[in-house]
Structures are given as structure tokens and as C-alpha cells.
């Protein structure tokens, strides 16, 4: 580990190899950009005097592009390692437990993929028993769809149990009875692209600034009834939660691994043999504090570079603030599944929690936390932080 | 017709009963808000001196809400009818053929519905021959999905033929061979709503500012291969074109008609007997200038009020600038179909154009225009303007 004048807690996931960006405020002060370091947050607006960090979202800084991202990261490292900067920087460190975190990015378009083979196969088995678990297109392209950007919220946002149409003859309207989670990783676009110009998969790091943890809350009964033929809509659009800290892609160099072997020859625009962007992140899914799953991101069939290349292959433009998520991360083992519908086999095999209660789907009051870590460039582990949310009962009102 | 000091062309669709909002510029001047009146545009930024009209999009004005919309509409009517205002207002009228129109609204979330029964049945017959043309959910809820907000562009934007994966064994990558149009009506949200608070269908006019014409360009081969199970993605996301003039909902009072009879009892949140929002708009679809279809909007099974109620039934928040579109408008007759895949029966029955050439799907160089009109409150017809686009060949590059 690099020397620093900072006193970092032992085993912190927020050492100098991380330096993630977020938007915070303290009582009576406006939201501004900060860097998580140890148990503190560095007030970047105050420390740099650059107004780009005082806008209340990362977008303006992200729009400056990769050279600016690299430059600031190098400067931060210098500030935090060279004792000469201590007097200047230290006054702008605030204890992280005293700040409020905000949505880090004003989300432009939100796309959600479906790139874990294990997840897709598990859902196929559960939803279409007797048929091949994967649909024919799945191995040829990263299946994905657009979600609702306007309901992406920061970790901690209460999860009000949504109402919707539930299957039945006739269908009924009421609070979802199958409220679920999806443990995912999200990728935040900084550099836009022109309409009509695809982004090749080798250009991931030119466009994607960083990574966060995502929980794509899902109402499985609503989703099951509504989704044919145009895909998920209200079963997803009530809330998507993201972790408050965006870890720069530059901090994940040591996490890069080859992608899994593919079963079919990929079309040239998806052929990633020269640009492997597998990422060895480990997710942890906790229900009321109890660890219920450890989904391994390294197993993902499609990488973020392929997702970005696919998403733009038709010439679709990127904007600063675009967020694309991996889809539920599930590994081959039962305790690596990233959603309750998988962990409970479609609601047929309840999980037993430490307090003796059982769960198929979420109950009111349940709290779900997804966190992730990665190997850092200094040999330690870095933290992507966590995304958490507690389920609130559906409000009683006339429907 | 109301008296006015303006000299309006006979039969103009842009009389005092219309007064639609758009964003325009002239050479060397910045984009600002204007009102179409006759063959002119009224420079609203200059005429009012209100900076809200100088922002380059309608969003800031839309965010002021329905009282402000009503107030300005009343003021405009007074200005344009009372001779005392002539000297003040007339200098701010510019010939419309000398201005450039811009995207009127910075689109927040874009949702596309599928609310024409005739369209859904036509597609069902074409795509799933031998099965019931409507899926079981269709009569119970307005099926819809999120599209890409970042590729919504103003009328006139070139339609670069997109590339994508086309079905085959194996699939191939290349320019779409089934480039299609979808004639639709779009609804622009002005007033936002809170996360967790559904918008009842009686509140449409509190939230929706106005209406535009939409062409949701579609690559049918790409769409057919990619869409299961998460819905359309790259087959749509390359471009959605909108007309430059947003007609206030207030201008469509005379167009309101009951919705068609429904075949099933609707759930209470969709029961619109007390809030009928059928709209008697007539669309016209032209291919290279030739009228090929006149889709009747009054036939739509689901109204915009139901679409808005459904879209928010799970508590999803609205933002200023949200755009939701009707889905392809098709009537019962063949010459009322709003897409080429319907007009050509899935590409099996080419249309013959006036020049003797035939079309199943679009060829490079083809120009498509969708326009719409409605009965106005003054007994005449008002125009929603048009959305047009010309197909440009896919650029040759290494894929």
C-alpha cells in the first residue's frame, strides 16, 4: 500500500486504490461532490475550488472526459500521499457517518441487461419448465431493455411496496405479493457519443467513468402478467436503487479477468478476445443483515464492453449520465443466486432466516443490502460500497 | 372564428384555436420558444421578455404547471385578437419558412404504448399466425415499455439505416432490411409527480401539457430477433422522431370523444367512464409524398388518461419532459394502418407507389411524413404539424 499521511482504518475498502466519487451534504449545506477515503469524505468542491464539483451531481465532471478523470485521480493521489499537501487537504475531510449521500448521477437513459447465464437459465427453468432454459438469441447478443431513469434513486430510499395488476381470472389490482431484489453492477457513462456512431468494445474506458452497485427491485407477479410482448414495465419501474459511491473504472484494473468461454462464435462487433472486460467483483446479498448469497461477477457471460458495443451498434447515441446495469448477477451455486425468485425456486422453497422465520419474497419491514468488493491495484480489496433499502407497506388508499 | 388583426391564410391549421409551442432559431440566433400562428412564428422570448422562453426547450415553462399554461394561452389570445396589442406583438412575428425548428422538449423518460387494438391484432396475425392475435393481458392493461429518451429527435433528422443482428442460422450483422415506420401521437408531461403517488386518470390535464406527432422508426428484423423476453431494444432505439410543434391539450377540447367500448370490465384505476379522453385526431402517413394511410386516433382502445394512470399505478414518478406515445395508430381498414409491416402484410404484399415502384419496407432515399389534424374549438380544423424523415444509406465501415 502506498504511504499516506492519512490514518486509514485497517482493512478499509476505501484506501488510495479506490477513491470513489459521490454526492454528499451536511446539515444546512448543499449537495456537492466528495471522495470516500477511509472513514471520511473529502469535500472536493472545497478542496479543489472547482465549481464543477459543486453542481450536486457528477454529470458535469463526467462530461469532461477521460483525460480530466485521470488528471484529477493523479492529483488526489498526490494530495493524499505527499505530506506537503496535508495542511491544505485535511480541513476538507469530514467523517462519513455525519454526511447524507445523494443520487450521484443525474441518470439520462437507464438500460438493464440480462447477462448472467446462470440467472437467465434459472429464470428459464422456473418460468418455462420443460422448455430449453435459454432462448435462441441469448448466446448471440446481450439481451437488454430500457428501464425508467426517473425512478433511479440513491441507496436508503424506502421501498414502498408497489401495487399493480396481478395475474388471475380476472386479474386483480393490489400490492405486489412477490416483491424481489436483483443484485447487479451498474456502469456510468461519462463521455457521450454521436447519433449514428457505434462505440467499439475497445473504447469502454473512453466512455464509461465508473461502477456502482444496483438493486433493481422487481414485482414478479406484476412483471409476469404484463411483460408479453414488450418486456418488463411496471414490475420494475417503481424503483431502482444505486450505491452512493461510483468507483472509477481506473480503480478496477486489478479486477480485470477474461470472460467465460462462449459457446457460439460471436459476431465481430461483440468479439472481445482483444478487449477482455470480465471483472472479478464479489457481490454480497444480505436480507435483514443475514448473508444469503455471494454472486460472483467474474462469471458474467457478457462483459460491460460488449454491452456498450451492443447498445450502440445501431448508432444509438450515449449521453453523460447514461446508466447501464448488468442484470442480476448469479453464479452456478445456489448460494450465489442474486434474486429471491431464484433462491426460493420461484417461491416454492422458502429460505429460513436466522430468526427462524422464512421468506420466499420480501415482507414489509425487510431490509435488503447488496454490497460488492474487488481486488485493488495495491494488492488489497476495494469496496464498491453498498445499496440498501427497507420495504415499507403499501399505503392504504382507494385504488 | 375569432376576430384577429392577423392576416391568417385561408384554412390554416395554425389559427387562434391552436397556438402550439415549439423551439426555433434563425441564422445566428439561439434556440428559443415560439408559437406557430398562420404562416408565422411568434418569438415568445422577445414578445414576453420572460427568460423561461429563452432556455432552448419548453421544459422550464412546462414545469410551471397548468395555471401558468392557461394564463399564457389567454394572454396570447388577447394579444392576437385585440388591435391595441398589434404594434407590440407584430414585430415579433417571423415567417415560419425562415426558421429552423429544434427538439421542443428535453425528453426525460420516453414510454411507448401499444394501444391500438387493430395494430396489435394485425401484428399478432402476422407474427403469430394460428394463435389468438391478442395476448391475454392486452384488454386488461395498456401494454407499454420504456424507449430510449436520448435518441428522440426533431422532425427532419436524417434516418440513417441502422445495422443490427438479423435473424438467421447463425444470425448476421448488417443494415436492417426491414426498416419501418410507426405513426403515433405523443403526450408531453409538464407537471411532475412524487415517487409513490399514482396519478388518477382524471388528472391527465394537470400533468400533460400537450401533444405531438411521433414516428417511432423500427427495424423489424432486428426487433424480431432480439425482443424475447425483455422487449424491443435496438430495433427501436436508433431514432424516434417528433413533430416540432406541441399542441396544448387545451386546444383539443373539441376533439374529445368517448373511447371505444371495452370487452372486459376494467379495474377501477383504468375505468374511464367519467373521464373519457378519446381524441378524434386524424393521422396521415405519406411515403415520398404519396398518401398511403389515414389512421384514425379516435379508434384507440386505451386513452392517454388510462396510459398515464397505468404508467404511474405502481408509484413511478413523472418528470417534466416525460414523453409517452400511443403506439402505432391503426384503424380497421387496410388504408388506415400506421406501419409498413401492416400495410404490406409482413412484407408479403408490396405496396405499389404512384411512380410504379413497389415497397414492402423503406428503401434508402425514401421520405416518410406523418401529420395529424383535429377539430378545433372554433369549428375549423387545427394542425398538429408533421414529423418527417428521409432514409439515408447505412455508412460503409468495418463492423
Percent range of helical residues of chain A: 10-25%
Strand content of chain A: 25-35%
Largest sheet descriptor of chain A:
8 strands, mixed
- Please, how many domains of chain A? 2
Oligomer description: homodimer
Q: What is the mean pLDDT of chain A?
A: 96
Number of helices of chain A: 9
The residue ranges of chain A in which pLDDT falls below 50 over 5 or more consecutive positions are none
Blueprint (SSEs and pairs):
The structure is a homodimer of 399-residue chains.
Chain A: E1 21-25, E2 32-37, E3 40-43, H1 44-48, H2 59-62, H3 66-81, H4 86-89, E4 93-95, E5 100-102, E6 110-113, H5 117-127, E7 144-147, E8 152-154, E9 159-160, E10 163-166, E11 172-175, E12 179-180, E13 183-189, H6 204-207, E14 208-215, E15 218-219, H7 220-226, E16 240-242, E17 247-248, E18 256-257, E19 278-279, E20 282-287, E21 290-293, H8 304-311, E22 323-325, H9 340-343, E23 351-352, E24 358-359, E25 367-375, E26 381-392
Parallel strand pairs in A: 6-22, 8-16, 9-26
Antiparallel strand pairs in A: 1-2, 1-5, 2-3, 3-4, 6-7, 10-11, 12-15, 13-14, 13-22, 14-16, 14-17, 18-19, 20-21, 20-25, 23-24, 25-26
Amino acid at each position: 500500500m502506498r504511504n499516506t499521511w492519512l490514518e486509514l482504518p485497517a482493512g478499509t475498502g476505501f484506501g488510495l486504490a479506490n477513491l470513489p466519487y459521490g454526492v454528499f451534504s451536511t446539515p444546512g449545506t448543499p449537495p456537492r461532490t466528495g471522495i470516500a477515503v477511509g472513514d471520511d469524505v473529502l469535500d472536493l468542491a472545497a478542496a479543489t475550488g472547482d465549481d464543477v464539483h459543486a453542481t450536486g451531481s457528477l454529470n458535469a465532471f463526467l462530461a469532461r472526459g477521460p483525460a480530466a478523470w485521470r488528471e484529477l485521480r493523479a492529483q488526489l493521489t498526490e494530495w493524499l500521499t505527499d505530506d506537503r499537501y496535508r495542511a491544505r487537504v485535511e480541513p476538507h475531510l469530514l467523517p462519513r457517518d455525519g454526511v447524507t449521500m445523494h443520487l450521484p448521477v443525474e441518470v439520462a437513459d437507464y438500460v438493464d441487461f440480462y447477462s448472467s447465464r446462470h440467472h437467465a437459465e434459472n429464470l428459464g427453468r422456473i418460468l418455462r419448465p420443460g422448455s430449453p432454459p435459454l432462448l435462441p438469441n441469448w448466446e448471440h447478443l446481450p439481451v437488454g431493455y430500457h428501464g425508467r431513469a426517473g425512478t433511479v434513486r440513491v441507496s436508503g430510499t424506502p421501498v414502498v411496496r408497489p401495487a399493480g395488476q396481478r395475474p388471475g381470472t380476472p386479474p386483480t389490482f393490489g400490492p405486489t405479493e412477490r416483491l424481489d431484489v436483483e443484485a447487479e453492477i451498474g456502469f456510468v457513462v461519462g463521455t457521450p457519443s454521436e447519433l449514428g456512431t457505434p462505440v467499439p468494445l475497445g473504447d469502454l474506458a473512453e466512455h464509461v467513468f465508473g461502477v456502482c452497485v444496483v438493486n433493481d427491485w422487481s414485482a414478479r407477479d406484476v412483471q409476469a402478467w404484463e411483460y408479453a410482448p414488450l418486456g418488463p414495465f411496471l414490475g420494475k419501474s417503481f424503483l431502482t436503487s444505486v450505491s452512493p459511491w461510483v468507483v472509477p473504472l481506473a480503480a478496477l484494473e486489478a479486477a480485470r479477468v477474461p470472460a467465460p468461454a462462449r459457446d457460439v462464435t460471436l459476431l465481430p462487433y461483440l468479439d472481445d478476445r482483444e478487449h477482455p472486460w470480465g471483472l472479478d467483483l464479489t457481490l454480497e446479498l444480505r436480507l435483514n443483515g443475514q448473508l444469503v448469497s455471494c454472486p460472483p461477477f467474474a462469471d458474467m457471460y457478457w462483459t460491460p464492453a460488449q454491452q456498450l458495443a451492443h447498445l450502440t451498434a445501431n448508432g444509438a447515441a450515449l449521453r453523460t449520465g447514461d446508466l447501464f446495469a448488468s442484470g442480476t448477477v448469479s453464479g452456478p451455486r445456489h448460494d450465489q443466486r442474486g434474486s429471491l425468485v431464484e433462491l426460493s425456486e420461484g417461491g416454492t422453497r422458502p429460505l429460513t432466516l436466522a430468526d427462524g422465520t422464512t421468506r420466499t419474497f420480501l415482507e414489509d419491514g425487510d431490509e435488503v443490502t447488496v454490497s460488492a468488493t474487488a481486488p485493488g491495484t495495491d494488492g488489497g480489496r476495494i469496496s464498491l460500497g453498498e445499496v440498501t433499502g427497507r420495504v415499507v407497506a403499501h399505503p392504504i388508499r382507494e385504488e
